[in-house]
Amino acid sequence: MNAAEQANSIEFANKIATVVRLFKGTFPDLRADLKPWANDQDTRALVDPDSIDLGFHFPGLSRLFQCRSLLVQIRFHTDSETLVQRVIGVEVAGFDHRGKQWSLSTIHQWSFTGAVVPDNTVGNRLKDCCRKVFEVFN
Questions:
Q1: Counting Cβ atoms within 10 Å, is residue 103 exposed (0-12), middle (13-18) or buried (19+)?
Q2: Which of 7, 37, 38, 55 to pair with 99, CA 20 to 30 A apart?
Q3: Is residue 43 predicted with pLDDT exceeding 50?
Q4: What pLDDT, on the 0 to 100 scale, is given for residue 34?
Q5: What is the Cα–Cα distance from 1 to 55, expressed in whole angstroms?
Q6: Rounded to two decimals, what is the model's pTM?
Q7: How many CA atoms lie within 13 A of 79 on its CB side?
Q8: Domain segments of the chain: what residues?
Q9: How does DSSP assign 11-69, residue by residue?
């Protein structure tokens, strides 16, 4: 679900803003997009209500990232007994004009998959951002 729609409390909005600052602090060229999903019926049918989705865009094609845009999905699980919401994973995908080029999931192997993958240096910095997302929310 779009991050802008999930900011339903001051505390949660601050955490979303912290994640944006985290990514922009690590990769200063990025421009944040708190509404990466279109607001149409078909798109809404695909959106996970237990996630926060953020888009980040480079000013052009990033050769190090092998993409122009990043879609970051922070996935949550709510404990049915305590009603505590915790991050269970972060998924990042890199897109260019041809579509999705690569993905990274912290739920599985923490490895990049796809037709092309980011340079090791920026890939490791991206993984570090994902680790810090867990710290922000958990």
A1: middle
A2: 7
A3: no
A4: 82
A5: 11
A6: 0.86
A7: 7
A8: 3-137
A9: HHHHHHHHHHHHHHHHSTT-EEES--S--SHHHHHH--TTEEEEEEEEEEEETTTTEEE
Q: Give CA torsion, residues 88, 14, 132, 29, to 10 deg.
A: 120
Among all chains, which residue has been given the structure tokens 């897109």? Answer: 95
By residue count, the chain amounts to 138
Q: What are phi and psi of 7, to 5 degrees?
A: -80, 70
DSSP class of residue 2?
A: B
Q: pLDDT at residue 52 above 80?
A: yes
Please report which confidence band the pLDDT of residue 64 belongs to, taking 50, 70 and 90 as the band edges.
very high
Q: Are 93 and 100 in contact (CB under 8 A)?
A: yes
Distance CA 138, CA 132 (A): 10
Sheet strands side by side (includes 85-96): 31-33, 51-62, 67-78, 85-96, 99-105, 112-114
Q: Say if residue 41's pLDDT is above 60.
A: no
Contacts of 114 (CB under 8 A, 6+ apart): 94, 100, 101, 102, 103
- List the structure tokens of 88: 């269970």
